[in-house]
Amino acid sequence: MAGKFVHQSIKRIEDPELITANVQFLDDINLPGMLHAAFKRSDYAHARIKSIDVSEARKLPGVIGVYTAEDFGDYVKPGPLQVPPPTAIKGATYVARTTMPIAKDKVRYAGEPVAIVIAESRYIAEDACDLIYVDYEPLEAVVDLEKALQPGSPLVHDDLPSNEAGHVRQERGSWEQAVKEADLIIKRKFFINRNAGAAMENRGIIVQWDKQAKQMTIWCGTQSVIALRNQTAARLGLFESQVRVITPNTGGGFGPKINTSLPDDVLITYLAMKLERPIKWFEDRRENFLATTSERDQVHYCEIAVKRDGTIVGLKDFFYHNTGAYNPYMMTVPLNSQTHTVTNYRVPNFLTEFYVVFTNQMIVTPVRGAGRQYGVFVMERMLDAAAKELGMSPVEIRRKNLLPANAYPYYTSIIGQDFVEGVLDSGDYPTAFEKTLELIEYDKFVNEVQPKLRAEGRKVGIGVACFSEGTGVGPYEGARVTVGGNGKVVVTTGYTSQGQAHYTTFAQIVADQLGVDVKDVKVITGDTGYFGWGAGTFASRGITVAGTATHLAAQKVRQKALKLASKILEAPEEELELADGVVRVADIPSKFISLGELAIIANPMRGTMEPGAEPGLEAVAYYGPPYGATGAGAVGLILEVDPETMQVSLEKMAFVHDCGTPVNPMVVDGQIHGGIQMGIGDAFYEELIYDENGQLVTASFMDYLFPQATDMPKKLVLGHMETPSPLNPLGIKGVGEAGAIPIPSVFTQAVENALQDTGVEFDRDTLSPSRIFTYVQQAKGA
Amino acid sequence: MAQTVKINVTVNGRQYEREVEPRLLLSDFIRHDLGLTGTHVGCEHGLCGACTILMDGEAVRSCTIFAVQADGHEIQTVESLGTPEKLHPLQEAFIEKHALQCGFCTPGFLMTILDYLGDNPNPTEEEIREAIDGNFCRCTGYFNIIEAVKLAAEKMASH
């Protein structure tokens, strides 16, 4: 669905200010009298706190206060669940052990705060942390996912009988039946690694308490202003209206910034009230690695049941999911893995089961992809394994099993992170797949290029994988659209932005409805002082859910403008049009009234109003979908492995995606590009590695390898498809995570293909030169 | 109070005389003492490149230099480039090619590229990738930044 602005690659409205540094990021804000916070963090992953000596730290000049759990009394307790448990799933079990704002008696992960220092400067606050002495009794750390559930394992939470945090089993059809029907059952085990969101801007918060006005203002690059406001107000016994949360410009989110009731916001709001001075805390990179949330590791045991001709008759996947020391985010990530395991293919019988496990590691919450990529990884790997056993090509087995273009809506029987049965609303997976093969020139590479290069001794490989991305889930978002007396339009929403171009894309949607220039629409996101409802920025739902709410609000304003103008211009509404900032009679362009004048008339200062009429050219709308809109696509990759160093060079990538109507195709491409970078990191560079004592050994960019410009594919070709979603009027599906999802799948397949002569097969989603070398040695029996 | 040292630094053509602690990072000095917050801090260990500035015309990371080491030197930050009304050609190129999303890493990229294009006004794509390899970006996948550098090279050549 194209309009004058929607479906156009409008240059971003926010860019001129952003690129000239005429904006404010969190750490750019300095308030008069502001104090600075630093955390003393646990060196141990698992230990009892015997005593904490803060006396020396308190004496340091410039230190205002040093606080441990004891100093907060009853205020310190486990925070609220950020996501409800999946009670909609029959038989699902769970326990909730939510985040402790500051460790009391026991530390459960390395990096957990044990004390907080408030000082006149950050330098002094950090100095004081070095003067805090903690006497620990180290305990054996729970690190290994599978051992954690064995009897006799040390316990992360002493009051629980085991480290099991939850269990979910879902089945469609009957795996038992699949076993009966199958010619062959293939079994594999897979390891999924931990990754960081690693937004370039770390987390942070500034809190100001105005004692006279009894008003708290919080500046925070949170992905959910509403959650932060509501949880803060409830905890401190304030009304929501007494807490205003403002997101400054935010340097990327990628998931971890969705969390609220973490140590920083819980403790700093309290201390800002107590000390009656504003307090800033801005995380450093080491803290971000250690103690912001990150994503999962999982261990999968998978079986695929196939016919000789490659037809899938069933899949069984059993996995363990690491949730870290606490589980405030419940099961969003493993549920995403579960729902995304079979979405692209016809799998009549599917049994999926997981256990969530507490460990002495940092808390697990979504990072771009949010578990979807691991469901996809498991399925794609199983197809590769099946193809090999059956003597088929990876292309042939996928072609045979992809859901056909007439399959939608397709009911999956599997309940997902939004607690309703997954439904694939629309799509055309076979066309996406074929288009990818075309763009990567699959046949030409396999038949002509590869044999020639192989003859020269070069290790070149190709891979192709499919993916889907459940996006735009509920519950809801809202927006207010207001025409000002200046004829310009303001959109406000509780949705927050971390660089996704909402200031442009939401403006495009409104400009089309109201017939104004896109530059005359100002978008304000993530400030509870302007709009106080919404859930947050997650699950690629910005343009789908908040964008649709914006569209609906703009439509209401349009109706109001038409109704009012009809009276003033003495012409029926059907004969009016909105264009160039005016409402005019379509056939008599000289007969018009500007939106600005209408806005003024719509808010009468004297006289009477019609019963039921609402003032202003303003409207609020909410949108909540019955289930998410599912985007999808496929990716092809050609790469070369250096047989000496096992370094991998990405020669060409073809990425085809379908996100329904792209509101701004340029922005959509940008989202895909960024996702690919994270996917490449996931596949080959990035890994949060914990040693056997629960120490994170990759807590800096020296050790945690972040993909750089030379690591990207030398050539990238994007292919676009548009099957509009029937769920919303613009036909939109989300796209924020798509790029990241299929990369580990295609990467491992392509490296295997490059090293085909060694017979190597990979069972994990993150490779590295040394890992590849080890696998090859093992394959050789060395 | 810790001992302080007097330093003289020229930043974006303006001279500043300040008393600073010897341990104060140049990035913190620029951002918090001078209030030039366009220079961003992403890692504070010299890897991500977000804090890149020009010191005597050379791109350097301001998070791994002490403010006292800048005494007597000339510094250029992102604030010295264009304004929203009158953008620098490099900034224009970034906007035209959608080479920024959250914008946090962008100042570091701009300063790195400014230095680089000064030395090599007509780079190949491979050279561009090498040139920006020391700057991290989480949003763009670098693809559009590479395109922006190509376009900036053209624009700056015709200026």
From TrEMBL, chain A:
Keywords: Molybdenum, Oxidoreductase. The keyword Protein biosynthesis does not apply. Residues 156-173 have a biased composition (Basic and acidic residues). Residues 154-173 are annotated as: Disordered. Pfam families: Ald_Xan_dh_C, MoCoBD_1, MoCoBD_2. The keyword Oxidoreductase applies. GO terms for molecular function: iron ion binding; oxidoreductase activity. Residues 20-140 form the Aldehyde oxidase/xanthine dehydrogenase a/b hammerhead domain. This is Xanthine dehydrogenase family protein molybdopterin-binding subunit. Transmembrane segments: none annotated.
From TrEMBL, chain B:
Residues 5-81 form the 2Fe-2S ferredoxin-type domain. CDD domains: fer2 (cd00207). Pathway: Alkaloid degradation; nicotine degradation. Keywords: 2Fe-2S, Iron, Iron-sulfur, Metal-binding, Oxidoreductase. One of its GO terms (molecular function) is metal ion binding. It comes from the Bacteria. PROSITE patterns: 2FE2S_FER_1 (PS00197), 2FE2S_FER_2 (PS51085). PANTHER family: OXIDOREDUCTASE WITH IRON-SULFUR SUBUNIT (PTHR44379:SF5). This is (2Fe-2S)-binding protein. It comes from Bellilinea caldifistulae.
